[in-house]
Design brief:
This protein is of the alpha+beta class. It has three domains: 13-68, SH3 Domains (SH3 type barrels), CATH 2.30.30; 80-235 and 276-392, Rossmann fold; 239-267, no CATH class. It has helices at 4-12, 80-89, 93-100, 103-115, 117-120, 134-142, 156-166, 207-217, 239-246, 261-269; strands at 14-18, 37-42, 48-53, 56-61, 65-66, 124-128, 147-152, 173-177, 189-194, 218-225, 228-236, 273-274, 288-294, 305-313, 322-331, 339-346, 355-363, 372-377, 387-392. The strands form five sheets. The protein has a five-stranded antiparallel sheet, with helices on one face. The longest helix has 13 residues, at 103-115.
Length: 394
């Protein structure tokens, strides 16, 4: 017979449905399948909840949970509100300030245009996802193409028109508001340029829109900028960050707070840490490209699943906290030279082997409340490889 307290506990639980499969990477994480019904007992953080499945209790990722039967709906149907929210974010200045303040990104595009200014003269250019139009403005300022089609799906397009006119370039730059899949141009273009890369290269998955625009509007023999891209991994240690987030809970103010360490590990070490700067001495092996994209030959169908491999020979004894990842993009030169664009991100574990090897798979699956889902290889014991799935919006 249940006690009164047990009845109260059950009444306070909330029932959720799993949106997709999840395999726990530690003993305190639950594994479940899409459509499973879980009882959520507590929500200690926005990322991880304390839940129960078939009498077993553990942490579950909140982004996998839904209070409707999402798993039973047609996965091919995308909700319109997701586009509205995604493009709505790009209609605000916050993201554009962040991007324009990224000098390495902005200067890379400016330098490519400057280096190819003679060849760009009299060319027709499409700037896809132009935002405030900075790349389009660089083209006219530095190279004087015959026409630039600046394509932006968000409401920022109206302000981009004002910026183009304010700078006196409205006779050359035409701003078109709409998605790449829907807009119409009066002609094909010689150059398709876009800053489509997200965190770990593929986050937000704008690359699909770039490929669709390429197939519709880039003339035969035209130029793609970037022309190629690669995602690079290196195993690393992050001792100071790990100590800051974990050792703190040992005896703050002379009290034993170690029961909070498992929660700290869940909150701080099960998701990427962005813009993490590592020293060369933090790297445990030579870097390795795990995914490479040729923007001329890559097809939309290829994006359904992209596979790569890595094999690292660990060069020193250390604690393996995780991988530092960055991407490199290359711009084909129309004249001579070229340019690359790099960014870093970091995500933690413990190493007891002299090699690390695994397959990495990026797969896309439509899922209610998530336009795009990225599957990323996450940390697991050295003697085996595993795949952990992180639903990511768009």
């Amino acid at each position: 017979m249940q006690t009164e307290n047990e009845d109260e506990d059950e009444a306070s639980c909330e029932e959720y449905v799993a949106r997709s499969d999840f395999t726990g990477s530690s003993t305190d994480q639950l594994s479940f399948s899409r459509g499973d019904i879980l009882l959520v007992h507590a929500k200690p953080s926005s990322e991880w909840w304390w839940a129960e499945l078939q009498g077993v209790i553990g942490y579950v990722p909140a982004s996998y949970m839904s209070q409707d039967a999402a798993g039973e709906e047609d996965p091919s149907i995308e909700d319109p509100w997701q586009d509205e929210e995604y493009f709505g974010n790009y209609g605000t200045l916050r993201l554009h300030l962040e991007m324009l303040s990224d000098k390495s990104r902005t200067e890379a595009y400016r330098q490519v245009i400057l280096n190819n200014s003679a060849s760009l003269s009299s060319k027709r250019v499409m700037d896809l996802g132009c935002g405030t139009g900075i790349i389009s403005l660089f083209c006219v300022q530095l190279a004087r193409p015959s026409m630039v089609y600046a394509v932006e799906a968000s409401s920022m397009a109206e302000y981009t028109r004002q910026l183009v006119k304010q700078n006196g370039y409205d006779e050359v730059v035409t701003v078109l508001q709409g998605r790449a899949e829907e807009i119409e141009l009066p002609e094909q273009v010689d150059v398709l340029v876009s800053e489509w890369m997200g965190n770990c290269l593929l986050f937000e998955f704008m690359v699909e829109s770039v490929l669709l625009a390429r197939d519709r509007w880039l003339r035969d023999g035209g130029t793609m900028w970037p022309s190629s891209a690669a995602l690079t991994f290196v195993p690393c240690q992050a001792d100071s960050y790990y100590a800051e987030k974990m050792a703190f809970w040992e005896r703050p103010y002379g009290l034993d707070f170690t029961p909070l360490q498992p929660l700290a590990q869940q909150e701080f070490f099960t998701k990427p840490k962005f813009s993490h700067i590592i020293e060369p001495c933090d790297c445990l092996a030579a870097p390795c490209d795990v995914i490479s994209l040729d923007m001329y030959t890559l097809q939309v169908g290829d994006l359904e699943e992209m596979k790569g491999q890595f094999h690292f020979c660990v060069e020193k004894s250390a604690v393996f906290h995780g991988f530092t990842a960055w991407f490199t993009v290359c711009f084909e030169s129309l004249e001579a030279g070229g340019a690359t664009h790099k960014k870093n991100s970091d995500a933690p574990f413990s190493l007891q082997a002299n090699t690390l090897e695994a397959d990495i798979v990026h797969a896309r699956q439509a899922c209610k409340c998530m336009r795009r889902r990225l599957d990323q290889w996450n940390n697991c014991p050295p003697e085996k490889s595993c795949l952990e799935t992180f639903p990511m919006w768009r």
